[in-house]
Amino acid sequence: MDSSTAAAMVRADGYELHALAIAYGQRQGHELACATKLADALGAASFRIVTVDLGALGGSALTDEIDVPKDRDHASIGAGIPVTYVPARNTVFLAVALAAAEACGAEALVIGVNALDYSGYPDCRPEFIEAFERVAALGTKAGVEGTPIRVLTPLIAMSKAEIAAKGHELGVPFEHTLSCYDPIEQGGAWLPCGRCDACALRAKGFAEAGLMDPALGGQA
Amino acid sequence: MDSSTAAAMVRADGYELHALAIAYGQRQGHELACATKLADALGAASFRIVTVDLGALGGSALTDEIDVPKDRDHASIGAGIPVTYVPARNTVFLAVALAAAEACGAEALVIGVNALDYSGYPDCRPEFIEAFERVAALGTKAGVEGTPIRVLTPLIAMSKAEIAAKGHELGVPFEHTLSCYDPIEQGGAWLPCGRCDACALRAKGFAEAGLMDPALGGQA
Asked: Using CB atoms and an 8 Å cut-off, which of residues 101-140 of chain B contact chain A?
């Protein structure tokens, strides 16, 4: 939901999109099938999947056999770093995206991080993004000899309701987006659990925006 | 040569070593076989190979079919960013190492970058390392809730001659190290080309240290 809305927003600003999905050993391999459909729907000029096996390193409920927390109230979500935190995940994502951007001559990376209605991950905060931009400026040929590659975070200060409304306005096919940390396979379709932090934040966002979530019918 | 000497130096300082090799699509897959032997020789407590297919992104003589420059004089080496630069390579290496370090509770990363007798890569400079340390401090649970993971660069201000002498003193098995950008396979052994920038810097280092390079006999 966040990545695809962020992508749609920069595309609406006139950027050509080169989509990148990272296969990092997440339990929901279905995310990668969604990413393929979204890249196509958003008119991406290219789409790549790069494998980085963070699952082999362990340490997270998203890649290990640790239980995903369920039924937490909104006050608890974001009040600390949850067990769904994947060690250095966005640092790895941005590093691989930086390599991809420099190899294809892209001006900027875009990432759907959000520091308002979020789960409390340190690598979603603006100060982290600024620190990464400095790495991009100092650690690449593009940064030293040309124009540093920027990191665009169009959602950073938006609420989930604003993200749902903006994505809806831009025609993002939310039926192909998956936010759930622990989806349930049912007859070949994937249903969100409806009880993890990501489901709770998403439901609140759609409700406050006065929209139906098209993914609630299950995904083929 | 640099990675293994850096590892031996921090081990001599009392650190327990957890070795990490990145399979990034480099043409010299032989590097990974060397890494396995070196981790064992250096008494590493663990050794992992993580695949990140930067080769699929293109843009470098180390992963693509671009020719590696040969027979350049020492004044030319390091005077600009060469075609052997791999886009954002050390950013990706450090990001994956940061994830590994956080997952296993390590205090620090160690990387054998060197800004003196080096090839002119932007991601070997101290200002890049400092920027990455800030990313590690702001973008991880370890940095926010505990002690930030440091990046140790014991070779950063050493000459190649000093590195050769230090590695020799610490018993680093240089016969299992491969610096060459374009090694030649000969009867199952790998021989350095002797003509690329990395071979030139290495030869100068061993010569100035008054040492023989044990890798010149070829590697099984």
From this structure: 102-104, 122-123, 125, 127-128, 131-132, 134-140
Chain B CB contacts of A20 below 8 Å = none
pTM of the shown model: 0.91
Q: Is residue B219 part of a domain?
A: no
Specify if A220 maps to a domain: no
Q: pLDDT 10s digit of each residue in chain A, 220 long? A: 999 999 999 999 999 999 999 988 766 678 888 999 999 999 999 999 998 888 777 666 666 666 778 888 877 777 778 777 888 999 999 999 999 999 999 999 999 999 887 678 899 999 999 999 999 999 999 999 989 999 999 999 999 999 999 999 999 999 999 888 888 888 777 888 999 988 999 999 999 999 999 988 644 4
Number of neighbouring beta carbons within 10 Å of residue B44: 18
Hey, are the CB atoms on A95 and B100 less than 8 Å from each other? Answer: no
CA separation (Å) from A79 to A23, A51, A200?
Answer: 28, 31, 14
- Token pair belonging to A150: 């920027």
* A189-191/B46-51 β-pairing: unpaired
Tokens found for residue A92: 């790895």
Q: A183 is in which domain, residue-wise?
A: 2-214
For residue B50, the chain A residues in CB contact (below 8 A) are: 52-53, 56-57
Question: Distance between CA atoms of B161 and B156, rounded to whole angstroms?
Answer: 13
- Closest C-alpha among A55, A33, A48 to residue A101: A48
Q: Calculate how close chain A gets to B177, using CA atoms only, in Å.
A: 25
Q: What is the CATH number of the domain that holds A23?
A: 3.40.50.620
Burial (0-12, 13-18, 19+ Cβ within 10 Å), A10: middle
- Domains: count for chain A: 1
